[in-house]
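Hi! If you just cloned this repository, the fastest way to understand the data is to look at a raw example. We've pasted two of them here, unedited. The first protein comes first, obviously.
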Amino acid sequence: MLAISDDSIQTETVEPCALIVLEGILILCDALLRELMDLRLFVDTALDICLIRRLKRDIAERGRTVDSVLRQYTGTVHPMYLQFVEPSKQYADILISGEDKDREAAGIVIARIEALLPDSH
């Protein structure tokens, strides 16, 4: 595991095991990592929902103004999402959208995970 802070980089060795969960908005961008994954998920939330969540969070938790959040979103967050994150969803095995039909996707994910775990059979 790689942990980055302001002043240092720390690593932690992860021993082989039946299941390792990786997460991150850019995790599917790396071809070498994708090749190591048995199952790749992409949470595909509508951009208007993302903006609303960001506005609520940044105003309530970070003391930011609506204008500052919108400037950041339109200036960097949205363009970088379109350039780097959005294209990576093509590598996902399953897209999770947050809609009712995700119950079916959740069942598939659970079945795939159970198949990977040695004690689940």
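Ok, and the second one:
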Amino acid sequence: MRVSEAIEGRQSTRAFDAERPVPRETLIRILSLAGRAPSGSNIQPWHVYVVTGQIKAQITQRCSERYLAGDEGDAEYHYYPKEWREPYIGRRRQTGFGLYGLLGIEKKDTQAVQAYRVRNYQFFDAPVGLFFTIDRDMELGSWIDYGMFLQSVMLGAREQGLETCAQQAFCPYHESVMPLLGAPDGEMLVCGMSLGYAQRDALINTYRTERLEAQAFTTFVDD
């Protein structure tokens, strides 16, 4: 698979084949490849926890129960802007309206929206869950490095015929997730990720978001 093909074809997959396991050797290959991502002074500030089986099921149960009970949790960092403004709020709304519109879910249908969102904590039926953490004493530069590592994981997965969905949705429930991972107090949850083989015929997997052309966000500074 060409790099351009891997990038252009990547999407947030939200329906996986639960009956098709991912071999551990494949996971090691993907993570080893992603470990080649650049980082300042090569400090490689990432930690990865791979969950399957009963631990994954326990994470699903605890996070789902909290979400369905109306517990919004408390993430340790702000992922989105504290105050939304254009053009970002417009892009967010376009994405949400497009996704729910495809599924035939109206915004005012609280029960249907909740039933869809809880799928996050079910890993969208993916057989593998990944959790990424970072040491608390790392600075902003290491978070930038982490983004390159996460992208490398997602692209490496595509080369193996797998798909992914990166999920910040787990972060508000870090107190429930981190103990099940056995992660030390000195680490912070960056995000989760569902990984597996996509259900190619699933309606939700036909949804694709739009992207800006390079000219819209690029400035050429000439002499």
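That's it. A detail worth noticing about the second one: The chain has one domain: 3-80+119-217.
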